[in-house]
Amino acid sequence: MAEIFSAMAEVAMLELNISCPNVKKGGACPAQDVGHTSRLVRRVKKVVGKPLIVKLSPNTADIVGVARAAEEAGADAISLVNTFLGLAVDLEKRKPVFANTLAGLSGPAIKPLALKLVWEVCRQVRIPVIGMGGISSGRDVLDYILVGAAAVQIGTVNFCEPGAAVRIIGEIEIEMDKLQIKNLSEIRGKLQA
Ligand SMILES: Cc1cc2nc3c(=O)[nH]c(=O)nc-3n(C[C@H](O)[C@H](O)[C@H](O)COP(=O)(O)O)c2cc1C
Questions:
Q1: Ligand 1 center to residue 102 CA distance, Å?
Q2: Is this structure's pTM higher than 0.85?
């Protein structure tokens, strides 16, 4: 599939999602394992002639190890995070709410958790990192840039507000004016921790 998409003129780059949690087997995915990530990225990289972004999972004990494995295997950029595994229960029925028992949690609740992982990965890889998780304002975007993200993506907010991306882009400019930031490079990766 990567080979087919890579050959399409309209496709500028590919994002390889190796972190989908909505599966049976308790949400297991390749991005939980350094070896699996490495093999998969190497194989896909061999057949794509376009930049390859590899999307990581927060549901691993070693996100930096997995990020480094993706980088060494040829990823051109990394994106993170996918959703956090969660559990919702139906008390009356004594059953999980979701058919696969576990499901992915996203949105504002995960922002501090996601930001921490993006910060950790940004410090340990040389390739660009695309940050995401709970972004719903321009200020959120600047937070991700401050911890080192080269770019961001927004997910869940689109479900509540389809025009969110346009609003957020406007807010970034307003926040930058307020904070007297002329260029995002002035704050990118500049968290003093
Ligand atoms: C309903 C839903 C479907 C998603 N489907 C995908 C998917 O197909 N591929 C993928 O890489 N990530 C998928 N994600 C994860 C999001 O792209 C994103 O990584 C995550 O939700 C965190 O960002 P957010 O808090 O801005 O949504 C999905 C998220 C949600 C909520």
A1: 15
A2: yes
